């Protein structure tokens, strides 16, 4: 199964990194697009601030799983949606890092190590896998339209669906618990507050 998605996973990773670079390097230019997304995240954070770690983790898990499932199902639209969502997620990460380093005056590497890496090591691969699956669906559609596909390509996608959903869900669940419990502590230590 890994071989079937490796190239799509690599494409998703490249798109995510391009998005992160754009979000960080062009933060001021992209603020009109990314600020509403940030505002939504801030509102969610304020709502969850007084919740327990469990309630916060479950809310984060639900939101991230929903986005991942949208990326997977969005592959049915010729793979365009997972392509765009993975770039947008990367851009949001880059924008958050640029904003964090500018407003709080901590180094980029410290922001990555404390604010992204602890939960991102699980969350980002989950997003990339969901995006890879969605892009594979889109590529299979293109091949079917061109009648260049191999017999059984759709069968592989159907067979892999629940395995990928399970892997993505487990990764996102672990990420959500880390993001709701460990990441805030590390960020407070990094900021010195």
Automatic annotation (TrEMBL):
Pfam families according to UniProt: SpoIIM (PF01944)
Domain of life: Bacteria
Keywords: Membrane, Transmembrane, Transmembrane helix
Keyword Membrane part of the UniProt annotation: yes
Family matches, as InterPro entries: SpoIIM-like (IPR002798)
Transmembrane segments: 69-96, 108-130, 161-178
Signal peptide feature range: none
Record's protein name: Stage II sporulation protein M
Species: Ferroacidibacillus organovorans
